[in-house]
């Protein structure tokens, strides 16, 4: 396997943290420089027409794109510890929470960054109105997460799952997006501090 | 089980088609009138704080939201026919294509509808600039699908999967969004005609 990696960008980090939480060493890494637009090159576009990172190239040449598709493949190969739930009900709840965070907090923070950050002006056709509309939604998204964490150590209960990786990365992504995390989100702060202290979070 | 349903909206339809493709009868249906804003009621918000449809209520009272989480739960209970792939590699590829379509075509068509359609003005804080930016992306999304279907009967090969349901519903959603499907997408037209002819598509 080869992992086409994108450095500090949120999705490549999600996959590297997933590897670390599984206790699997990273495969051969192929760095792709997003700032230098290497992900828009002809060679990379042939591999992933959507020009997104990361991509896991399997030994048979299959190019597997989409962060969660890569993580799910690793879950099939290395079931322990289960990071997508351990039975029909918990698997469905992990899928639900991972999607709630992806379509909510993660998506809105990404919109503020991509459509509002000056450094992205050259890479994106920015729609500043979209950045502003999403900035106004961040507090609602944070409350959804805060309330869920009020009764749970991790997003889906006592064990860390892929939903925590997605949510933790979304919180991390607020900093370069220049979105402050208000003091009153005490559950999010407690949970995020526990994530950051895990060895995987350095991945 | 009870299915809180939203009529002709795309996501409730995805779940009903999934039931039909599995050959499982629908559970008890609780209609929720989106136009009358019943999904914003206090009772519904307690069940799904994101105020989205559909929701599958399990017999133990668990409220399972998010279309794909509901479908994945049904896949666990009723594995045949497999609609999320049958081994590690095909499961990952189905996840990849389902996400590519969700984040690409489906998301852009939904943005055109939600942020551009006059009938949505009362339900959404519309950002017309976002509708227009997404309208310009539709052709690129369609070409990604067209090229994939050029070598495949269905999106992921010889058998229908959840990625076809997502993609087919996205194509259907173009009509109320007033987006024409140009004649030159011959593979999409061939594949979509086959979907529409399936009994499940009436669900």
Q: Summarize model confidence as the mean pLDDT of chain A.
A: 96
Q: Which fold name fills CATH's third level, the topology of the largest domain in chain A?
A: Glutathione S-transferase Yfyf (Class Pi), Chain A, domain 2
What is the terminal-to-terminal distance of chain A? 18 Å
Which residues of chain A sit in consecutive blocks of at least 5 with pLDDT less than 50? none
Element order, helices and strands of chain A?
EHEHEEHHHHHH
The portion of residues assigned to helices of chain A is 40-55%
| Subunit organisation of the chains | homodimer
Give the overall form of chain A: globular
Structure classification of chain A: alpha+beta
The main pleated sheet of chain A reads as: 4 strands, mixed
The number of distinct β-strands of chain A equals 4
Question: Count of helices of chain A?
Answer: 8
Give the secondary structure arrangement, pairings included.
The structure is a homodimer of 203-residue chains.
Chain A: E1 2-5, H1 10-22, E2 28-31, H2 42-47, E3 55-57, E4 63-65, H3 67-77, H4 88-116, H5 128-135, H6 138-150, H7 162-174, H8 186-196
Parallel strand pairs in A: 1-2
Antiparallel strand pairs in A: 1-3, 3-4
């Amino acid at each position: 396997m080869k992992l086409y990696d994108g450095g500090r960008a949120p999705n490549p980090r999600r996959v590297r943290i997933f590897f670390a939480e599984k206790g699997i060493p990273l495969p051969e890494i192929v760095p792709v420089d997003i700032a230098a637009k290497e992900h828009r090159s002809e060679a990379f576009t042939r591999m992933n027409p959507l020009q997104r990172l990361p991509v896991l190239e399997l030994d048979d040449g299959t190019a597997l794109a989409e962060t969660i598709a890569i993580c799910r493949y690793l879950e099939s190969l290395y079931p322990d510890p289960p990071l997508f739930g351990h039975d029909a009900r918990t698997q469905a709840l992990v899928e639900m929470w991972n999607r709630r965070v992806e379509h909510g907090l993660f998506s809105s923070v990404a919109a503020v960054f991509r459509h509002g950050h000056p450094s992205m002006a050259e890479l994106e056709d920015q729609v500043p109105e979209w950045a502003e509309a999403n900035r106004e939604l961040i507090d609602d998204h944070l409350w959804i997460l805060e309330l869920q964490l009020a009764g749970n150590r991790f997003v889906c209960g006592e064990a860390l799952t892929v939903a925590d990786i997605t949510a933790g990365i979304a919180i991390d992504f607020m900093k370069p997006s220049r979105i402050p995390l208000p003091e009153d989100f005490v559950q999010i702060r407690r949970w995020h501090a526990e994530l950051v202290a895990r060895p995987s979070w350095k991945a």
